[in-house]
Design goal:
Elements: E1 2-5, H1 11-27, E2 30-32, E3 43-50, E4 53-60, E5 64-67, H2 69-74, E6 79-85, E7 89-94, E8 98-103, E9 107-111, E10 116-120, E11 126-134, H3 140-146, E12 152-153, H4 158-177, H5 184-197, H6 206-227, H7 235-242, H8 246-253, H9 260-278, H10 284-290, H11 296-307, H12 311-317
Antiparallel strand pairs: 1-3, 2-5, 3-4, 4-11, 5-10, 6-9, 6-11, 7-8, 7-10, 9-12
Length: 323
């Protein structure tokens, strides 16, 4: 992982160094900031290889960004770019994509060798995640379909935007937790989803169908993680949220070897283990309810079945339960 922060630099050096290292060399863009604002500039950047792609995350003070024809000529990369706004909002303008704004949680997609302008719209500056997927060696039809993709948001298909957003977030979490993980298939699916969202590949192709199953599974898991505290969380509720049938939802989980119910139960128990060890003052009953168990008896039974010990044993030992 490549990590860089301006914190270790003297204030008057920060923007110039950021301009050369992060902007010009890593992203092939030209950036600008008024001289009197440079003294207060701050930025943090990480880049993590994920399969054949690169996942970058950045937080920085506001400035203007240009990806010009000369920048592209100097630093061409022939890659698909999935841009995820993780905080604040940013304005974009491109010759073929027009002007648009991405808000927190929004996704935009482009080919890296298309010119654009961008700047943050809030005083907090940039807060974003970018997945850069090289097209070299990929299916020629998909690659040719991506060549002229000017930056554009996925405002017209909120369901697909939700799926891509969840898949990118899941990839980022997995790569951060396990840098040695094999992420090639996830990257391939994300590339297909991005091209599908921009109309560059057919929706009915085997690759697109596989990518959609992958993306909807990540979106389903995201809902389970967010809503596991609700005892009434059911397949019907999750399916309705995703805009698919209950049968389709169950099919998503089949390749994992764990059903919807078993997956949700495992997530609830994992969260219970975390709270048992980190929230010592929280009663076991409170933990059970906070994790979506409708009764203490159900919680104890599920916990002992999964781990062979009681919740109290885990809290006393402050050790992970046996798997």
């Amino acid at each position: 992982m490549l990590t860089f922060s301006t914190d270790d630099l003297r204030p008057h050096e920060r923007f110039d160094y950021w301009c050369e290292v992060r902007a010009r060399n890593l992203f092939g863009v030209t950036i600008s900031l008024q001289q009197d604002a440079r003294q207060h500039f701050q930025g943090r950047f990480t880049a993590l290889p994920v399969g054949s792609a690169t996942l970058s995350q950045m937080q920085a003070s506001p400035y203007s960004v240009t990806r010009s024809a000369s920048d592209i000529s100097r630093a061409s990369s022939d890659s698909l770019c999935i841009y995820q706004q993780t905080g604040g909002a940013s304005w974009f303008s491109s010759r073929n994509g027009g002007e648009f704004v991405v808000q927190t949680g929004d996704i935009a997609i482009s080919h890296t060798d298309m010119p654009y302008l961008t700047r943050p719209l809030t005083a907090d500056g940039f807060d974003l995640r970018i997945l850069k997927i090289p097209l070299t060696g990929r299916d020629m039809h998909a690659s040719s379909g991506a060549l002229h993709l000017a930056p554009s948001p996925l405002h017209n298909d909120p369901r697909l935007a939700k799926v891509i957003s969840a898949a990118v977030a899941a990839l980022a979490a997995e790569a951060t937790k396990n840098p040695e993980a094999d992420c090639d298939l996830a990257v391939t699916h994300l590339a297909q989803l991005a091209l599908l969202a921009r109309g560059s590949v057919p929706a009915g192709s085997p690759d697109s169908r596989a990518a959609l199953r992958f993306g909807f599974l990540q979106a389903a898991r995201e809902i389970l993680t967010r809503e596991l505290h609700k005892p009434g969380l059911s397949p019907a509720i999750v399916a309705a949220t995703l805009g698919i049938s209950v049968r389709q939802l169950h099919v998503l989980f089949e390749p994992t070897g764990m059903s919807f119910s078993r997956t949700l139960n495992a997530m609830r128990l994992a969260e219970a283990c975390r709270l048992l060890q980190s929230a010592q003052a929280m009663p076991v009953t409170g933990i059970a309810h906070a994790c979506g168990f409708d009764s203490l008896a159900t919680f104890y039974r599920a916990f002992r079945t999964a781990h062979g010990v009681t919740p109290g044993d885990v809290r006393t030992a402050r050790l992970p339960p046996a798997s």
